[in-house]
Amino acid sequence: MKVIVCGAGQVGFNIARYLANEHNDVTVIDQRPELIRKVSDTLDVRCVLGHASHPPVLEQAGAADADMIIAVTAADEVNMVACQVAHSLFNVPTKIARVRSQSYLDPLWANLFTRDHLPIDVIISPEIEVAEAIMRRLQVPGAIEVIPLAGDKVRLIGVRCTEDTPLVNTPLRQLTVLFPDLNIVIIGIVRQGRAMVPSAEDQMLPGDEVMFVVDTQHVGRAMMAFGHEEPEARRIVIFGGGNIGQFLAQKVEALPSGVTAKIIELSRERAEEAAKTLEHTVVLNGDALDSDLLEEACVGSAETVVAVTNDDETNILAALLAKRLGCRRVMALVNKSHYSTLMSQLGIDVVISPRAITVSNVLHHVRRGRIHAVHSLHEGFGELMEADALETSPLVGKPLREVKLPQGVLVGAVVRDGKVINPRGTTVMQANDRVVMFAASDAVKKVEKMFAVRLEYF
After folding, report:
1. What is the pLDDT of residue 350?
2. Residue 372: which CATH number?
3. 78 and 55 in one domain?
4. Which end of the chain has fewer CB atoms surrounding its CB within 10 Å, N or C?
5. Which residues are CB-contacts of 68 (< 8 A; sequence separation ≥ 6)?
């Protein structure tokens, strides 16, 4: 696939890296020479220095025969115009744009992004996506990752094991015997920073991060099996009053009464804007690293602190300070991948990665065939896919134990007629079943080729 990525910032760089690693033909456009130099030195992609929405620059980037343009520069207007030019002059089939300003995204103006007006096929709003990802984690106490699938009938849950986790040191094949009501499929274990697809003989150990697929109705039971019975947070403090902080506070305000939020924001102008936008949220103007201010905000008695400033180091340090003051659970927004392996050692309970969320949004449209959703897991460890099984699929009509799937591919759940089936060796899949599958990174293309091209699975 030939893809043009407009914008070489963190989002654009990571999208380009992911697509290039899959051997797509990628061209990156940016008008900042230092970023173009970094991309050129780091990634196996073409680079074009110039303004992403200018026709000659898009022509130089190969827009005439491009399959997709992904516009993720810092300016909404540049992204929108780049998509318009790509459509009008070069007839690029798929156009994806990052749009951050809520004034464009208001449902009142939903008709704006149509083929007859601004022909953008997919709108990416990382700030809204991140706020929603944080809310999902808030609603499943103890989870470090929550991803809804199949209309939220199925969820991927990530948890961190400790010495007190009941399931540790038990071979996975014995889990169904020891915990007969535990209908989960463990698809990944991250141990000492390295992810692996577990076999039936593997065990979960203290310190492991475990990813499993579960029927949404059984999430509470599964979390109890992993030793998590904490109540949902009622008092939440948010560090950072930017777009993410404000979106998150708005979602907290929409929850049933009794859940309260406070925001601490360093910029006076932004704090005043947040105070005007939010109805029931207390906004404090000050530094999240000021322990006196944190005590004034009663951070020590909060169930959860969420650090979402635009600086990774501030988020990490402020979260650790909140933990020291007595906060039960801290979350930190971290963009830089080299910090992620340190977080659990430092005591950060949940790390939020905007890069993974944004890449997942794009992957859905890169994958060929009948895929409804794609989620990238743990820095490219693999992908969780949701797709429909067709009659021509090798999965259909025989027990799963007889199906030869590529190594590193697991079936996590099957949804049939609105009901979730926990896959076993005896499970026989039918045409039109909604399938949730995990594929390790080196098996993704095999799955795509095997099912999408030859058998039209996806």
Report:
1. 93
2. 3.30.70.1450
3. yes
4. N
5. 1, 2, 3, 4, 92, 93, 94, 95, 96, 365, 366
